Amino acid sequence: MKMYSEWASLEQEIQCDTANQSVLHKFPAQVGRDVACAVVKPIAQNLSIAVSNSEQSNLNNTKDVRWVMEVLCFGLSLPLEEHESIRDCVNVYCEWLSALASPKPCVPKPVLEDPNPFAQVIVQHLLNLFVPRPKASIDLVRRQAVLCHRVLRTIQSVATESSILTRETWETLLKFLLAANDSLLSPPTEKDDVGLSSYDIGDHLCERVLSVLLEMWLLCCARCFPSPSLWKTFRVMCINWRHHEALVLQWHRVNHVLTCRLLRFMYGPDYPELQLSEEDAQLLPGEITNDCVAQSWFRFLHILQNPVDLCHPEIISQTPKFLHMALASETVVDPSQHECLRKLPYIFYKAMRGISVMVNAFLGIAQCVKGENMLSPANNRSLTAPSSPPGQRKSKGAFAAVTAPLTQRVSRSTTSVNTSSATSKLPSVAPSSTPGQLSLEGREPLATTRPHCNSILHLFGAWLFEAALAGVKLHPCHVNKGSQGRRANSFTETRPSSITLDGLQERLKHADNTYEAGRAEACGALCRIFCAHKTGEEILTVYLSRFYIIMYYGLQTDEENISGQVLSNILFNSCDLLRVDLVGVQILVPYILSALELVLSDLNPKFKPHDQIPVIELRKACIHLLLSMLSLPLHFKDLEIKDIVGFPDELPISQSFISLKVRMIELLLKALLKETDSSNTQLLLGGLMLAMQDLALCEEADQTTLQPAHDVPVTVDSDSHMDSFHQESLHFRHSSQSSTTAKELDTAHGLFGQATSLVCNRLMASWKSDLNTALAAMEVLCGLAKVHLNFPNTLMCKRTVKWICDFIVYQCSRPAPNHSRDLHSMIVAAFKSLTLWLVEHNGLLQDKECLHNVLEVVELGISGSKSQPGTPLIACKNRVVNSDSKLYAHWQNRASDPPKFKGDKQLMPASMRVKDAAEAVLTCIIDQVGAFPPPCGPESLFSLLDEKALLKCARGSTSEDQPSQFRYFVLDNSIIIGLLEQPLGNVEDPLPTVTALIRGPFGRHAWTMQLRHSPRLKKVSSKAHLSDPGRPLPMNNVGVHHNIKQRYFPEVVDKVALTKADLSIPTMKSLVTEKDAVELDKLTGFIQAQERFENKIKDRVHQKMRITHYPNRQTECKPPSICHEFQTARLFLSHYGFLSLEALKEPSNSSVPPALVMLDTTNTGLYADLETLDGVPTRDIDTVHIFYVKTGQTTSEKILRNVTRKSHVQPQFLEFVHSLGWPVDVKKHAGWTGHVSTSWKTLELEDLEDDECPSGTGGSVYNGQSKVLYWADVSTEVAFVIPSPESYLMKSSSSECNADKSPATARKTPAPEATLMKPRFLSLDMDKPPGPGPLLTDSASVRLRKTGRNFSQLTGPDTKVFVVWLESFEDYETFPAADLVGVTSTGLDQQGTSGGMVTYREKDLFILFIHALQNGLFRLQLQGHTTKMSMAIPLVSGMVVSRRSLGTLVRQTAINICRRKTLESELYQPPHVRRKLKIQEIVKKYRSNVTEPEFYTALFQDVSV
User: Fold this and answer.
1) 998, 970 in Cβ contact below 8 A?
2) N or C: which end of the chain has fewer CB within 10 A?
3) Entry pTM
């Protein structure tokens, strides 16, 4: 190290020091032994007596003390057989050393008076105890170790407690510890035949003597900072000990303690802490200053010089002790082949592991290193090492290069990985155990205040770059031959100068994976450093170049050069590599893609991965890399990718980004086919949707018109039943081997067929029981339904609909114990997907088979059974069934099966949620399929006419506020019909006319009906049929008049002879008595008189007719007068079959009202509730709030102010905003606007004035005050709002506004330049709850209609979705979401107030962060509370998206997030259910309890005005 270059090392002085030699060493050994034993024993005995009796020592002068010390010095060097004498010597010296801290009475007086000089001599003498004794027994060596432990403990205690140590004493202590370590650790350890090392004392004391040395050195740094000569000596002597793993462990132990303290005062207490064990936390002296910590940290960091030397046995063995061993040994020729060097792979791994921990600490990755540095001798000896020397072998085990600080460790076990025979040849060396498994799920974000990558690379880059190529065979173009023999040992020697690598590697003829564990750790650390690149940060070109070369070698996939641990570690730690704006990183894309193909193409990778990286987590990391690559081919297209390896004699290999497109898509489909993990599958499904959407939009932009060769990718008879899921899975397994598949995947048409078929197959085969995966699959199918293709794949669309129907049938037919809320959520999601497919591809219902399938599954959802149950077919015949799939019964319908009629079936749906979803599909088929968007635009699915608009047009109406002219009836407790019997003003024909305003669960509809006698096509007016046609002219020829006597019976009756039976009825004469005869005569007279009177009148009339002129006015036929009163309400109800006695009867034993109910129009509350019903939307409504965050902004005021000026935002932001939806005027908009106070209202054009909208804004014009961005389909409305400073003011003013004083906001009809042609809007305006002040319109300028409004029907899951545009990606961690929630109120929030501030639940807030990369792509980051159903797709965290598909995918993700929350919420009700419940509430409140006669009477009466 250059900082010590001018200072001399004290190594020679320490090694040749004779201060530990006694005068007795000059005499024969036996003489010295006898003297020592004779002198030491009584001294020790007197010492013990003096200690117990607190007596003073009898050594009163310096001369006596020094003589005794000469004897004690020799006694410490006695053979171990004289253990008792050695022990007595140790006891005496340990007691005398107490004079430095807490003196005892037994200590001689001269030592007490001036302890430092005597202590220095004592310490030097004690070095004899640490000298190994050859040929000692195990028991004696253990006893020696015990004495050494006591000495170390005593010295450490004295140094810690003493306050009188001089610099000379400190230096003596440090020299003693250096000499002790050198004596024990310098020689190579050897095992004899018995298994006992002749230097076994080193094994016993290695860890302890090193720990004391480092701890004492730290203490000395705090109290008496060591001189540069001592630092250099320490550094030079460590070179001789590097073959001991304890040195590396203790080195990192001190480094981690100093690093923890260093980070705390450099970056503050809030910086993620490096968690230490309790013992290590006490290692640092409390009095040490921050400056001292910084100086000590840097010196300790480089105390081992270059730790990469540990992977070079030829360097480690270049010490005097190793050379002496080689010369003295008959078996060892080369010192590098010594047996003890077999541990170097593990020591090298531990060295890189410790450096990796420090790198993570500087990156701000919260981690715990408790137990990292603990290694027991048992574990040390349990390492499996190869028999051949390093550098000449390929090892057989695998080291677990721990990268746990990047992630949280999980205790779950992973499935074992089966490797092929070729893979078994791959070398690796492994420790005996792995502490835990790694996971990407719990990854903590990097610290925002972390140092720049260059700073970390300046510290550790030289070591990591070199270690990352340990054992790698370099290409000639990557070797700097001029640098042979020059290797970096420290920071000061490793400043970047060249991208070429060390010439030392050139000696490798073959790749050597002996040290792949440490290499993997170094590669992982480098990947984490470069993935920590900040927005706008610059990294030196030389660092980038060396890193890319390392990545090139680490990503090798050929059998000769592959390293499983390195490859898996690189992939696991490089998730962010392609999404952090590294300059030139795209050069690695081909190599990364090859590595991903090796991992994702099979469930079990073809190499031995990291022991601590589960296969599932490795695949997840690879999927993240794949998701960050999918947009590259279509973005860069024909741009050439430079080859990282240049051979002078060969032409460079060139390939473009577009050439990788098919490979990426094939890999995506293969991975999706093979994947079994639910989380990974959802990520892949999101990637599939991204690829499909991007390819379709690219073709649409390029106007590609290539007609595909096949209509569907899988050839199956369309007339057969679509139950061949597993057969098609086989097709996908082999699709990559066919040339036609590549052509199909090259177009959106082909990919559409492959994607839909694969998703549907996997859905039925493997995903049908997994809630999250099934929901993700349905979201993908919904997205695919909206993909626009130049040539629609009609047959595949039809088959997809059939698959969805089969999925619903299968789930509904599962046994009752399997039915749960999650199962029904899958069914509901399937019905939603089915709705979108039918609406987007309305031609499907023109197919009879498809229509039958859809209606059949709708029937199943509503009633719980089919009319034709069919026969079960078990899908297991000659098919391959995946291990995770179950046999399922499929029901095939036959035309000959007798249907089961509706009245004969018992209504037993799977659940009410399923029934509601099926009803929604049925209504959509009837109302919307083929008719969406309606004439009034997608913002409204129903009529915009209400009572007041109709009354304005009604003939004879004089007031706009006369809704009581309507009669209101309720049909089947679910439909309210308002009937207006007055004809409208545009009806000229005097025909029976009724205007019906029908409010049902699915909206409001206005019908006008006439009872006509002739079709409208005829030009003849209806009045022509009601006018007098005139009498026809009389005819003179009246024919012959025949006088015929009418008979009641034929003439043959008179010829029939009477029988006795005819006489059974007596005649009247035979029954009349004399008394009755008188009465009978009177009656006969009356009859005759009446007959004469009638004849007389008859004659008079005939006489009068003879003299009357023709025609007779009294008998002439006249046309009736035109009728204007028809009781059209009665006619309507009667003609449609609603009016009957049965419909008016109360059901027995039921609280359900009759089928036909009349509402009381005299109750004025009815109209307010009808308006509230009109305010309940017919579709799901979602709101997305968009924010723009400039670099470093953390306050809500600054964030809101960004969008006020166009110059304050990036141009891509405005382009993205306009891709989300289309702008609408809040006052003219008939749909959802982001707040209930301005939604679902329109007014007449004459009532509104055009407002001037500000121009040149950065999006603030869409803050909801005048405009919003709007998007809608048949099932969802979405409003995109960009809050502005006005929104912040509105939040403040809204808390002060009184609800009674808050006027509603009016709206106007759309401008002529609107995208969709819309008719004139006539709608009912409803009073709104108190809204934000600045949004309110002056009530004098607009004529408003005020009624009450009940918002209880609008409750649902309180889900907030934010889209945040970041100029600097790191700002997502400091985004003030809680401060901005207050400006995002929609009026539907389930909110509580605390001190006037709106509170919110964090679990209901989801944020999509968008960051524009320098290459023109966009990085996504999702943040929100994760539940079992909240991981919506297609966008996932880390995905990189192109500009063309960003808006579409963000919108789909926001909708899917809200939809998942509705499925998860137990309080959510579909819109049509909420409307139905509101109708039932109205019936209960306003029903007219009249009898049947009163009901009919009311029908014939005029409506009271």
Assistant:
1) no
2) C
3) 0.82
